[in-house]
């Protein structure tokens, strides 16, 4: 049974009252850093921490901008948003019809379409491959002090290399920021849909492409033949680019610190978090490392 006394539900109730939606039948879908709730009217509410107002506002504008360019994308509800209530930031979305994770081909097609768009005439921010990594490192309490020190050193080295500038590559474009099959879904009625625009920004398209490359070369989640088809569809193989190692290492670091952060509050992920650290530190043998998904 849902605990209706939580601060997040209080914020949800107050925000829904303002826009004329009944929140009494709201049910949680996911309770994590960002909470996801479903309302019976086919509305999904995302509840974020208080420091996310600007990013939430940008996400709403981006969703509407993409829809204006006829990109199949999750739709923001036509209400004044985001709303800030009870120390939470709330955004309202149309519920996505029945769907499943997309394929790597779906991701390639979505990225080819996205990267071909002009940059919007409003500020979408610049890509930051390291957003929240320091917070995750501080939260990684199950790791030894030596492992955390090593990861911090790696983080600082990669930030320095990023700030020094990447080798010449593809032209700056709108980038999704977290392009994987869970965010490019396949609808049961046909077609695909782009979801989760929190990391949308302007940056090197290679960052989006690196996600699938890492799932092939680092974690082994994508077979080589599947990756080759991905490259053929998009028209570029990011692993041949001189800057690949920097962005791939940044993506790996994000995956390691994400697992370590969750391991601090979920004992079931401690072994996986430690395994990922061990792999980066040379204790796990050669790639691919067969990492198990978190959450």
Biggest sheet record:
5 strands, antiparallel
What is the CATH domain class of the largest domain? Alpha Beta
Question: What structural class should be given to the helix and strand makeup?
Answer: alpha+beta
Determine the CATH topology of the largest domain.
Aminoglycoside 3'-phosphotransferase, Chain: A, domain 2
Helix content: 40-55%
Task: Give me the CATH architecture of the largest domain, please.
Answer: Alpha-Beta Complex
Describe what this molecule looks like in 3D.
- This protein has 2 domains: about 5-95, Phosphorylase Kinase, domain 1 (2-Layer Sandwich); about 100-280, Alpha-Beta Complex (Aminoglycoside 3'-phosphotransferase, Chain: A, domain 2), CATH 3.90.1200.10.
- Helices cover about 40% and strands about 15% of the residues.
- The protein contains 9 helices and 10 strands.
- Strands 1-2-3-5-4 form a 5-stranded antiparallel sheet. A 3-stranded antiparallel sheet has the order 6-8-9, with helices on one face. Strands 7-10 form a two-stranded antiparallel sheet.
- A hairpin with a 4-residue loop joins strand 1 and strand 2 (about 35-40).
- The longest helix has 20 residues, at about 145-165.
Short synopsis of the structure:
This protein is α+β, with helices and mostly antiparallel strands. 41% of the residues lie in helices and 14% in strands.
How are the elements arranged and paired?
Layout: H1 7-19, E1 27-30, E2 35-39, E3 43-48, H2 53-68, E4 83-85, E5 88-94, E6 99-101, H3 104-115, H4 133-139, H5 145-164, E7 173-175, E8 184-187, E9 192-194, E10 201-203, H6 206-217, H7 224-234, H8 244-263, H9 270-280
Antiparallel strand pairs: 1-2, 2-3, 3-5, 4-5, 6-8, 7-10, 8-9
Helix pairs in contact: 3-7, 4-5, 4-8, 5-8, 6-8, 8-9
């Amino acid at each position: 049974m849902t605990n209706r006394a939580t601060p997040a539900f209080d914020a949800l109730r107050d925000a829904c009252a303002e826009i004329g939606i009944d929140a009494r039948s709201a049910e949680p879908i996911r309770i994590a850093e960002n909470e996801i709730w479903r309302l019976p009217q086919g509305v999904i509410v995302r509840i974020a921490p208080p420091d996310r107002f600007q990013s939430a506002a940008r996400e709403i504008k981006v969703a509407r901008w993409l829809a204006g360019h006829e990109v199949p994308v999750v739709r923001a509800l036509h209400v004044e948003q985001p709303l800030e209530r009870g120390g939470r930031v709330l955004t309202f979305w149309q519920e996505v019809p029945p769907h499943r994770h997309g394929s790597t081909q779906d991701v390639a097609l979505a990225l080819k379409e996205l990267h071909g768009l002009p940059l919007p005439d409003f500020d979408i921010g610049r890509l930051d491959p390291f957003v929240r990594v320091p917070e995750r490192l501080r939260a990684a309490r199950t790791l030894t002090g030596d492992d955390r020190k090593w990861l911090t050193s790696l983080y600082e080295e990669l930030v320095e290399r990023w700030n020094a500038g990447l080798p010449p590559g593809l032209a700056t474009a709108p980038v999704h920021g977290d392009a994987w099959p869970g965010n490019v879904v396949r609808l049961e009625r046909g077609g695909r849909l782009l979801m989760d625009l929190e990391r949308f920004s302007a940056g090197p398209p290679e960052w989006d492409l690196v996600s699938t490359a890492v799932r092939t070369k680092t974690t082994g989640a994508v077979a080589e033949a599947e990756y080759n088809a991905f490259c053929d569809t998009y028209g570029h193989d990011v692993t041949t680019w001189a800057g690949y190692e920097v962005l791939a290492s940044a993506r790996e670091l994000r995956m390691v610190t994400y697992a370590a952060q969750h391991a601090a509050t979920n004992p079931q992920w401690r072994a996986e978090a430690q395994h990922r650290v061990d792999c980066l530190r040379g204790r796990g043998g050669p790639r691919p490392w067969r990492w198990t998904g978190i959450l």
